[in-house]
Amino acid sequence: MFGPKKILLEGSRLINGAMMQAELIDEISQLIVPVIDSGGTEISRLYDLRGEPTKQAAFALSLIEQKTRSHDTQWLRHKVIQNN
Fold it and tell me: 2 — alpha (psi -120 to 50), left (phi > 0) or beta?
């Protein structure tokens, strides 16, 4: 009855992947900062799926908005296209 209309998900790549796989994410807001971090060998991911993907492992995105912020940081908002 009074359920939330929006929530902010700031989870780990496993939580993000699980929520995406369960089709609970309908929009992604992402900041891209123009820096190079060469401090490690493991590639950092935003989304990671455990085990075999049940429906799909890739999700199409549709750009909603793009803004250039300070220091050339890019703010991208995408709608997630669900494959139902």
Answer: alpha
